[in-house]
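Forgive a beginner's question, but might I ask you for the amino acids of a protein and the tokens describing how it folds?
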Amino acid sequence: MGNMHLIDRVSICKSFVFERFNGIPDQKWRTRAIYHSHAVSLLCVLLARKRCLDPEIATIAGLLHDFYAYEQMDYTDHAHRGAVRAGEVLEEQGWTTEEEKAQIMSAIYHHDDLMTEDDPMDEILKDADLIDNSMSNPSRAVRPDQVPRIVKICRELGLPLRE
């Protein structure tokens, strides 16, 4: 694993993920998988850089965070099941160290739990996912349980709060 950072792990992961997503038979699931995973991974980079955390690991977590859900076309308990599936992918592909794999799995495991504060990398994925799910469509109403986190993100990024 000593030469891990000499390879472009993000591009390799992106190719792996999108190749599989391109095989999703349902067009709506396929389109959402590609769009959402790409958007969340980009937001993870932004937030990781802002919060001085590893943007590469954050990006890989963003790419893999809903991999299980899209692979199965099922969101049932997708965060917990997705963490296990991401661990399997990372183990099979050998892209990460054990510590990095644990960080990614933790972020994926906790990414739907917006009411608690977890490790900093977990928070990056939660916030990136929330931004895409709730803020990428300005006409979509933000759920009441999302408001405190949205307010915190907007303040952090210097964005005006919408009414």
